[in-house]
């Protein structure tokens, strides 16, 4: 089966006063109908990879790739008009914090229906029904009330579910979720994950789950990419995460305090310069 | 070292009064490390803010080192005993004050002498070299900023440190460094910690005992060993521990 999304040698760079800064340096992967985790620390390029796929890297930032294809069709550096037809309709993104991603002076209902009507051309009444259905699908108990509410009138967990409802209304093929649960409490977090998991399974969507939380990604995703300094340093099935071989992945795992394994001192990651550029041992798709 | 009895903390006036903490009681012995855990809005940080006088609307008894505190005013002696480290090192340092100024100002306020020597010693003790002395916050990473915030708290030579989510804004590898530093400092200086966190594994690693909070109330107090063994008594604490430990597909 051909992948939904195929990336080869993705690079994102920004000119700075002291030369070009490469935020992403040659990332390659294929995404099928699966939950793909992208893990790394701040500055590893994981969010920038997501933004590059959506065409959200603003000038003077530059995106280049040998291949960036959605269903076999190139989406690299499309004109903004074309990209706008894809974004939201076929690829969507859920951001970290609903507080900063929802429009504070627009009701939830209007925000959900706006994007949906734009992409589907449906009537206002149909869009309203769709929005209510979506709110119900993300397990909001009182969809009518939330539809008419403003973002400040709902909780953070509800806001995140509203964002997911909004992104999923146009039925995208790929959902990019950038730290979608980091701002949430654990009980709400698990609820939101369940909703995303169900939607991936029921709709056959591809999910790119960007996170700094190794344990969570190990439990939630099918496959994990570990990023360091703008590159993928290791790729492995999520359930094999505890058997990771790359010293960076191992270092991250060891530096986490664990309930089931008390230690006197936490292991501290010793960064190696070689991780930035050394040959990557994990086979990439098509043996790249 | 610290006793909190029947603490109520509220915001606003009736009919809009919000009770952030209700009838919370716990005590922390000298040299102990005590954790406060719970979800957002459970009142854990509010307790720390009431202790340090950042919130004045509270009732009950707070005793620090045998001395009761009242209202919002705190004596000089209080600040020599109790210091606080905040969650966000990006927000808790003045962006236009160099590390040198942050520390020397604090030392002046505390009436310390030999300021120059003390600044060097403070920087050494938090693992920042002398080269960091004249840097500004924007020239520091998140972990380095949190080290400066810890050095500032240590400047008064306190015996009780209130730690409000000291590592939740940091990457895990940096979190490990800061937690190790806090452990070392406690051992070397015989400090007492009260640590607020939503991360149960961090609290189990750092604390001897902890209280689980929900909606402003202390639901349960337990030793860290009970947290590790999963032998919490209340249903809420058990559910919280289970939810934190793993994600189970429904």
TrEMBL record, chain A:
Subcellular compartments: Cell inner membrane
Domain ABC transporter: 7-254
Pfam families: ABC_tran, oligo_HPY
Membrane topology category: Peripheral membrane protein
GO biological process: one example: transmembrane transport
UniProt keyword annotations, A-Z: ATP-binding, Cell membrane, Membrane, Nucleotide-binding, Transport
A molecular function GO annotation: ATP hydrolysis activity
Major subcellular site: membrane
Keyword ATP-binding annotated: yes
One Gene Ontology CC term in the entry: plasma membrane
Domain of life: Bacteria
Family note: Belongs to the ABC transporter superfamily.
Protein name: ATP-binding cassette domain-containing protein
Lineage: Bacteria, Pseudomonadati, Pseudomonadota, Alphaproteobacteria, Rhodobacterales
UniProtKB/TrEMBL annotation, chain B:
Record-annotated ABC transporter domain positions: 4-240
Places the protein is found: Cell inner membrane; Membrane
Principal location class: membrane
Keyword set, alphabetical order: ATP-binding, Cell inner membrane, Cell membrane, Membrane, Nucleotide-binding, Translocase, Transport
InterPro entries xref list: AAA+_ATPase, ABC_transp_ATP-bind, ABC_transporter-like_ATP-bd, ABC_transporter-like_CS, P-loop_NTPase
GO molecular function, one term: ATP hydrolysis activity
Record-level GO cellular component terms: plasma membrane
Gene Ontology BP term (one): transmembrane transport
SUPFAM superfamilies per the UniProt record, alphabetical: P-loop containing nucleoside triphosphate hydrolases (SSF52540)
Function (record text): Part of the ABC transporter complex GsiABCD involved in glutathione import. Responsible for energy coupling to the transport system.
Subunit structure: The complex is composed of two ATP-binding proteins (GsiA), two transmembrane proteins (GsiC and GsiD) and a solute-binding protein (GsiB).
Name under which the protein is recorded: Glutathione import ATP-binding protein GsiA
